[in-house]
Design brief:
The protein has 156 residues and is of the alpha/beta class. It is 26% helix and 28% strand. The chain has 5 helices and 6 strands, in the order αβαββαβααββ. It has helices at residues 2-9, 22-29, 66-74, 100-105, 121-129; strands at residues 16-19, 34-37, 51-57, 77-88, 132-140, 146-153. The strands form 2 sheets. It has a 4-stranded mixed sheet with strand order 3-4-6-5, covered by helices on one side. The N and C termini lie far apart (35 Å).
Length: 156
Amino acid sequence: GVCLKHLNKLGYTNVTGLEIVDEKISNAKKFNFNIIKTDICSGPFNLTEIYDILYSSHTLEHVLCPEYSIKELSKFLKPDGVIHMILPYPDWDAANPGDLHRFRVHCGVVPLGLHIVDNGKSTCNIFKSMGFDILDYSFHSYREGEIHLVMKKSKE
């Protein structure tokens, strides 16, 4: 519910969170947020609305097949909608099987190119190959080194 509270403070009134952990769902519901229990790794995605914005911060790098998850979730994005994605970057430690815990927990790092230090070019190209246009990207270090992407579905 932390992100939902922040979005609400920014003026967003119709926000929905996706979560798999019951304790986090209970906490978010204390603030009257709409929460859908789902596993973004495997679906099915039983979202009931089509959204203007999809926002994801530090989640997709934990998904074994991030392409499946983002493509499935983007089906619930309006044609002119945008995706705001925040990912750890660079995350070369997670690409090292010698650090087994981080390698397993950040299993989406390699498929997303987050371990390649090239000013985000590889990561952007991977999202382009998935069918997204990159509208903007920038680098920050709020939690750790991060890449912030703003994307939309490519016109087919």
